Amino acid sequence: MGIQIEADVSDVAGAVPRRLFGSFVEHMGRAVYTGIFEPGHSTSDDRGFRGDVLGLVRELGPSVVRYPGGNFVSAHRWEDGVGPVDRRPVRLDPAWHSVESHRFGLHEFAAWAEAADVEVMYAVNLGTRGIQEAADVLEYCNHPGGTELSERRRANGADRPFGFQLWCLGNEMDGPWQIGHKTADEYGRLAAETARVMRMIDPGVELVVAGSSNQEMPTFGHWERTVLEHTAALVDHISLHAYYQEHDGDVASYLASAAALDGYVRTAAGIIDDVLVKAGLDKKIGISVDEWNVWDQRHWNDVEQHELIAGGWREHPPIIEDDYTVTDAVVVGSLLASLVRNVDRVTMANQAQLVNVIAPIRTEPGGGAWRQTTFHPFSLVSMLAKGNSLRLAVTGDTVHTGLHGRVDVVDAAATFDENGHCALFLTNRATESATEVRIRVRGARLTPYGTWTIAGHDRHLKNCVNTEPVRPVPLPGVTAEHDPEGTTITATLPPLSWTALRLASAVVRDA
User: Fold this and answer.
1) Run of H or E including 433
2) Which residues contact 264 (CB under 8 A, 6 or more apart)?
3) Is 459 helix (H, G, I), strand (E, B) or coil?
4) 291 classed as catalytic
5) Residues whose CB is less than 8 angstroms from the CB of residue 70 and which lie 6 or more positions away in sequence, other chains included
6) What is the distance in angstroms between the CA of the first residue and the CA of the last residue of the chain?
7) Is the Cβ–Cβ distance between 236 and 196 less than 8 Å?
8) Which residue, among 191, 181, 469, 168, has the nearest Cα to 324 in the 3D structure?
């Protein structure tokens, strides 16, 4: 039977925000040191920014990068990362059992973000600190001059304000692992008071309040409702964090991770709507999935954490440097499709993280940099997903999963822009057989002019510093049939694969 997909270029879920393709740099492991920053590296500039990594970041195409954490931020003193480098304090980072030198800090990141052409999403510490410190760092960053803090920034080399617009009110405050962990009421009250003073200082900021660390948290739902009851009038977005992994060889459930993300987003959206109605607020609160990825958390919990502590306090020890496979890349592609499908509620998202730490880009200290398998779906969706996300009706074959029940054998998302360009993103969840897909798109006469597929006979195949065997390859045999109402695209998807199709069109009726 295969899969049939119905779409109409006039039936849209919403515009695709560029912030959907964000990333994350935390002071964790080698994300910063020997990741984006390595003075003395053969490719580094006079600021210590690795040129090979910057080149890969530009190729990857993130639009916004969250910084400096993550768990790190909940004990971080922002003042430690400004001023002359040789006077900055060396401190213990209890979050990641590491020594933090602060050789790279706020000014360095602002300069790196400008070089990488990304927007900054800055997180404030609501773990060990609070309202005053959040107000201070905002004034330091965004006030033009004439005050002690803004003049300190100017004296430290930034005459113009950084002008950061996006601000996270803490990180994962629902998690008992978080330094300064709080109840929903405690955090909601603190976040509300922090938001009030930040808006007094800079009314133009966008604020992200911390939602649940994952869908399995026992407080999920209650946490969102309680926090929003305190903050809904004051914030613009609420965060969700989501990580997925393969459990005990259950590849079917792993390949259906996007179904879990879809449900997570829709449940949170319902809670947002309910709180807004009860509060009588006529506004939109977006969902910021500002940490998401695939990650072998069992290995971290059972092995790596113990090794990290046993190794003693060190500067930037390697932490969760997962080596990603073809299977991981396919799942990442489907998670990106979920974000595209849910643009009516998801306003931004950040894949965690950018370099070395469960990242699409890896480096060797003093050596090379390379693309992990997960690099490719991100770079392609970031490049191709423009305009509006189309609503799709999918029928046909399904597969059974232990965690998510029955799901469509093909996961799909599509976009269509004002220039008549259409992009299709297709995941074949069948592990043993190819799947034929017929995509009926009404309202446009489409012609394929770019195809990319990630697949392979070995689903465990990985890339490494010396070789990158996992790369997108063209998908043969994609055809288009036209009629007065639109186009039918036919493609045969390899087993366990992720595919992107780019199509050009002449619109055949007003869309």
Assistant:
1) none
2) 215, 240, 242
3) coil
4) yes
5) 24, 26, 27, 28, 95, 123, 171, 291, 352
6) 30
7) no
8) 469
Single-letter amino acid, residue 487: T
* Token pair 């390595």: residue: 38
Please name the residue that has the structure tokens 């969700």.
240
Question: Could you read off the pLDDT of 89-106 as tens digits, one per residue?
Answer: 999 999 999 999 999 999
350 and 24 Cβ atoms separated by less than 8 Å: yes
C-alpha span between 94 and 28 (Å, rounded): 11
Q: Which of these, 474, 450, 471, lies nearest to 461 by C-alpha position?
A: 471
- The Cα 439–Cα 393 span in angstroms is 10
Measured CA to CA in angstroms, residue 354 lies from 93, 195, 227, 331 at distances of 20, 28, 29, 17
Which residue's entry shows tokens 């890896």? 362
Q: In angstroms, rounded to a whole number, what is the distance separating the alpha carbons of residues 468 and 462?
A: 8
Place of tokens 């590849």: 251
Tokens of 264: 């997570």
Q: How far is CA 49 from the centre of its chain?
A: 22
The per-residue pLDDT for range 240-297, each reduced to its tens digit, is 999 999 999 999 999 999 999 999 999 999 999 999 999 999 999 999 999 999 999 9
CA angle (126, 132, 134) in 5-degree steps: 50
CB 358 within 8 A of CB 320: yes
Query: How far is Cα 192 from Cα 84, in angstroms, rounded to an integer?
Result: 34
Residue 332 three-state SS: helix
> Which pair of structure tokens corresponds to residue 434?
């190819």
| Identified catalytic residue from 26, 172, 246, 304 | 172
- For residue 395, count other CB atoms closer than 10 A to its CB: 12
Integer Cα distance of 416 and 446 in angstroms:
11
- The DSSP code for 300 is I
